[in-house]
Specification:
The complex is a heterotetramer of chains A (about 300), B (about 400), C (about 180) and D (about 90). Chain A has one domain: Thiamin diphosphate (ThDP)-binding fold, Pyr/PP domains (Rossmann fold, 3-Layer(aba) Sandwich), CATH 3.40.50.970. In chain A, about 35% of the residues lie in helices and about 15% in strands. Chain A has eleven helices and eight strands. Chain A has an eight-stranded mixed beta sheet, sandwiched between helices. Chain A is globular, with a radius of gyration of 18 Å. Chain B folds into two domains: about 240 residues, Thiamin diphosphate (ThDP)-binding fold, Pyr/PP domains (Rossmann fold), CATH 3.40.50; about 130 residues, Rossmann fold (3-Layer(aba) Sandwich). Chain B is about 40% helix and about 20% strand. Chain B has 13 helices and 15 strands. Chain C is α/β, with parallel strands linked by helices and about 180 residues long. Chain C has one domain: Pyruvate-ferredoxin Oxidoreductase, domain 3 (3-Layer(aba) Sandwich). Chain C has a six-stranded mixed beta sheet with strand order 2-3-1-4-5-6, with helices on one face. Chain C is globular, with a radius of gyration of 15 Å. Chain D is elongated, with a radius of gyration of 18 Å. Classes of the chains: A alpha/beta (about 300), B alpha/beta (about 400), C alpha/beta (about 180), D alpha+beta (about 90). Strand 8 of chain B pairs antiparallel with strand 2 of chain C.
Chain lengths: ~300, ~400, ~180, ~90
């Protein structure tokens, strides 16, 4: 019998301004299917806000607040404080920001909010560069990627700095719950959000969402590429519940990373050796994760 | 060598030709293509120093202050909220006497979000002690970048400078630009060699704590050097003209003003539209003039007071607005013009904000309004927003 | 001074086309200014670009409302956008289409020139069936309508400003130039 | 939804008045997905992965249907459909 595998209710309207094949509207759909109507989101500058459209229209069925680039977590904390003093205790507050807006310019505000353990969900929509301003490198841009500020000339110039380990940083900072989710796995995405929403304190959701314009990919392949990121171990799915790491998506046999890279124009320039180096890095990082799972579960 | 490019690329070439040694880059629309062009130049080995991707504008300015303490020539570029985020560090650069040059691709201030051009951001920084140079076209953006280092780094000045181009109207518009030769620029612009810099042979503390008994004296030194900078700005503009054949008037440029009945003062890309319309109207016998405000800080008060003897009415066009006061440039011009007993009538026209197109038709309406005020001898209302959906049907 | 308005979709190269025209005009000793409609570009979304060309320096910094030429890179846009709005009575129209002049339901009685820029672009491997890059073909045809810009200067500007496939883009411009009838 | 004619009609700060449903993004596409119900197993994967909410399923059990007013023609549905029930076709231009 045909069945919906995720809640049917939609909180995003049609007619939003996401590019064809954009991961962000999918992430917004899945997040709100879990959180429901009594949710307020605040967005800094970035695709998250732009996707919602232009005044006087907007594409959501829940309240939304815009904020400056560096203070998403602080504003979310403020909204929560407002609810608390007004005795509103059944609403969810979600600070929703991009990767650069989180790990670069917004890190200070996020770290302090975690330190205050403010009862919010902070969602980082990670498309691995500053896409709204036109594909500039961010702290989440992976090694090997072309961006407009790490252009490639004569085989040189692509990004050489590793993706910031924001989850580990925030676990060290003391988040009560963190999870990585991927738009290619909606059921898991909804489950993590449902688990996170009822834990008190600051929760961090790291969303992996492709950007076909920025990754130079065919829009129809967005979900396939996102899935390959997890299947190759490049973006493993796991959660950290009160300091305990555990895989939420067991990948028995990881696919070679090249299957993921070769679909993306932003990696087109990589030599065989460079791809081999990336494979090594992915393997090491995956082993580190398994080690953390082992160590933190005693 | 003539090349067609956007004003953003002209700014990047200006920085390259000035052989900047430390660049801090952070994206923000509409500035980003400067950072992207510099990244391209960097990877091709065309730059003369470090190109650093920072994590925010606040850190961009902080990083450059650090680099400048070592005596490195520094550059960055930003817009709107990026500039606002730097605000704290703008005071710092001034107080530390670090001659950092920064391109501002000026853009509206949110909320709500608006990525398009207006001058609210730079008007908000007039008090920080930075010199502010406005550009009318892409060539001027490039030339002003080079001139700014020459002015800012002069030991009699030692103050930072903003080179301001209108977001999108110039930043994303292609115009022909003459790229000067590197050797000529090297002749014109000596290496940066500050008197005070980190030196292990002469270790000092830069900053520290100054008690009330000496504080004002430090501030007075900055005030004096900013005032003296006016002479240096004019001098450098003349030298630039001698070397490269182009002048921008240094502080201000009077255009079609000699026999003008009325004059409009303004800054930025709209100056071009004003010059174009003033020529067209003169062909029809309407003598209207334009005062281009090239430099807003330091305020060219002496030049502005001349307006008292030139015309009975001066209009000021603003792409910014101080709520509860008036247009940013308007308040500056009136301040500069003011002479006790002077009968000069002034009116402020506020338009083109948040990317609203200010067309020749609007410009002509302003000049006609000024001519009407001259005829009637009185100003109907001091501040006029045009175009505006005000229900009068004038525009909509 | 002549004013040109180009209509395309995000990703079709309308803005680069306006830049190439400006470069070619400057190469031929004229003054030029080119700029996009400063909207929020999205792939597939309608995009407008502008170009002014004159013998003396161009100082106006404002939009174009009464163009002398309208160039339509994507015929599908005609159903969405009033591409001929403000076109001067004696203004000319250039449209990328395979349909004949009669088929095109164009109310305006201005002169219309037709070129199959999509066909030419695809012949040179520019873009894909669903997202052809037609900008260099269509400006090749335009130069036939505006001979003040020489085809050689245009080809040089195409090679200079085309981000990729420089020769293919130049060939597309030349092909379009050659098959477009003198106007 | 108030009629916005002059500044007097505006709220003190921009708050939105309506949804983006008036923004028919279907005009963006150059190709469109065609669903073949004979192959469709009603697994709703296309509904699940549509970034533009342009796959409608009235109620569980129904066949999905594509809302061409909003579909941007990204092709994710065709790419993800496990039973090849969706293929992309060139947009017929009017």
């Amino acid at each position: 019998m045909p069945k919906f595998t995720i809640p049917k209710e939609e909180y995003l309207y049609k007619g939003h301004s996401g590019c064809p094949g954009c991961g962000t509207p999918l992430a917004l759909r899945y997040a709100l299917k879990a959180l429901g109507p009594r949710t307020v989101l605040n967005f800094p500058a970035g695709c998250g806000g732009v996707v919602l459209g232009v005044w006087p229209g907007y594409a959501m069925k829940v309240p939304v607040v815009d904020n400056a680039f560096e203070c998403t977590a602080a504003v979310a904390n403020g909204i929560r404080a407002g609810f608390e003093v007004k005795g509103v205790d059944d609403a969810y507050v979600v600070g929703w920001a991009g990767d650069g807006a989180t790990v670069d310019i917004g890190l200070q505000a996020l770290s302090a909010t975690v330190d205050r353990n403010s009862n919010i969900i902070y969602v980082m929509l990670d498309n691995e560069a500053y896409m709204n301003t036109g594909i500039q490198k961010s702290g989440c841009t992976p090694i090997g990627a072309w961006t407009t500020t790490t252009p490639v000339s004569g085989g040189k110039g692509y990004n050489l700095t590793p993706k910031k380990r924001i989850m580990d940083m925030l676990v060290a900072n003391g988040i009560v719950y963190g999870a990585t989710v991927n738009i290619a796995y909606p059921e898991d995405f909804v489950t993590r959000m449902q688990k996170a929403k009822d834990i008190r304190g600051t929760k961090f959701i790291h969303v992996f969402a492709p950007c076909s314009a920025g990754w130079r990919t065919d829009p129809s392949k967005s979900v396939e590429i996102a899935r390959l990121a997890t299947q190759t171990g490049t973006f493993p799915l796991y959660e950290v519940d009160r300091g305990k790491y555990s895989l939420t998506k067991e990948i028995k046999k990881r696919k070679p990373v090249d299957e993921y890279l070769k679909l993306q124009g932003r990696f087109r320039h990589l030599s065989k050796d460079a791809i081999a180096d990336i494979q090594k890095l992915v393997d090491e990082e995956y082993e580190r994760l398994l080690y953390k799972v082992k160590v933190t579960n005693g | 060598m003539i090349e067609v490019m956007t004003s953003n690329y002209a700014a990047a070439h200006g920085a390259r030709l000035s052989k900047v040694e430390v660049i801090a880059a952070y994206p923000i629309t509409p500035q980003s293509s400067i950072s992207e062009k510099l990244a391209e130049m960097s990877v091709k080995g065309e730059l003369h120093g470090q190109y650093i991707l920072v994590e925010s504008e606040h850190s961009a300015m902080s990083l450059l202050i650090g680099a400048s303490y070592v005596g490195a020539r520094t550059y960055t570029a930003t817009s709107s909220h990026g500039l606002a985020l730097m605000h704290e560090m703008l005071y710092w650069a001034t107080g530390a006497r670090r001659p950092i040059v920064m391109t501002i691709v000026s853009r509206a201030m949110a909320p709500p979000w608006n990525i398009w051009g207006d001058q609210m951001d730079v008007i908000g920084e007039r008090d920080t002690g930075w010199m502010q140079f406005f550009c009318e076209n892409n060539q001027e953006t490039l030339d002003t970048t080079i001139m700014s280092y020459r002015i800012a780094e002069d030991r009699s000045v030692m103050l930072p400078a903003m080179v301001i181009e209108d977001g999108f109207i110039l930043s994303h518009t292609f115009e022909a630009v003459d790229l000067p030769d590197q050797d000529d620029v090297d002749d014109f612009l000596p290496k940066f060699n500050p008197e005070l810099k980190i030196d292990f042979n002469d270790p000092r503390r830069f900053g520290g704590l100054v008690m009330p008994d000496w504080w004002s004296e430090f501030r007075f030194r900055i005030a004096q050097d900013m005032e003296d900078a006016k002479k240096k700005i004019i001098e450098v503009d003349k030298e630039f003209e001698k070397k490269f054949g182009r002048s921008y008037g240094g502080l201000v440029e009077f255009y079609n003003c000699d026999d003008a009945d009325v004059i409009l003062a303004l800054a930025g890309s709209a100056v071009g539209t004003a010059k174009h319309v003033s020529d067209k109207m003169r062909e029809r016998g309407k003598k209207v003039g334009v005062v281009k405000i090239k430099t807003l800080r330091p305020l060219p008060a002496e030049e502005l007071t001349k307006l008292n003897d030139m015309v009975p009415v001066v209009g000021v066009f603003d792409r910014s607005f101080n709520f509860g006061h008036g247009g940013g440039i308007f308040s500056e011009i009136r301040n500069g013009i003011y002479t006790p007993g002077g009968g000069l009538l002034t009116k402020n026209y506020v338009g083109g904000m948040g990317g609203r197109d200010f067309t020749p038709k609007h410009m002509e309406w302003v000049f006609e309004d000024l001519l009407r005020i001259k005829k009637e001898g009185k100003v109907d209302r001091m501040i006029e927003w045009i175009p505006l959906r005000d229900g009068t049907g004038r525009w909509y | 001074m002549i004013e040109i308005r180009l209509h395309g979709r995000g990703g079709q190269g309308a803005v680069v086309a306006s830049e190439m025209l400006a470069r070619a005009a400057v190469r031929d000793g004229m003054h030029a200014s080119a700029f996009p409609f400063f909207g929020v570009e999205r792939r597939g979304c309608p995009v407008t670009a502008f170009c002014r060309i004159d013998d003396k320096p161009i100082r106006i910094h404002a939009g174009i409302y009464e163009p002398d030429y309208v160039i339509v890179l994507d015929p599908g846009l005609m159903a969405l956008v009033d591409v001929f709005q403000g076109l001067k009575p004696e203004g000319k129209i250039l449209i990328n289409t395979t349909r004949s002049r009669e088929d095109l339901t164009i109310k305006a009685h201005n002169k219309v020139v037709i070129v199959d820029a999509t066909g030419i672009a695809l012949k040179h491997g520019l873009g894909s069936e669903t997202a052809p890059i037609v900008n260099t073909a269509i400006i090749g045809a335009f130069v036939k309508m505006f001979p003040k810009i020489s085809i050689d200067s245009l080809l040089e500007s195409v090679r200079e400003a085309a981000p990729v496939k420089k020769e293919e883009n130049a060939s597309a411009a030349r092909d379009a130039y050659e098959i477009t009838k003198e106007v | 939804m108030p009629v916005l004619k002059t500044y007097k009609d505006l709220p003190s700060t921009p708050v939105t008045f309506y949804s983006t449903e008036s923004n028919k993004t279907g005009t963006w596409r150059t190709i469109r997905p065609i669903l073949d119900e004979s192959k469709c197993t009603r697994c709703y994967i296309c509904w699940k992965f549509c970034p533009d909410l342009s796959v409608d399923v009235a109620k569980e059990g129904d066949f999905p249907s594509i809302d061409y007013d909003y579909c941007k023609g990204c092709g994710v549905c065709a790419n993800e459909c496990p039973s090849d029930a969706i293929h992309m076709e060139k947009e017929a231009h009017k």
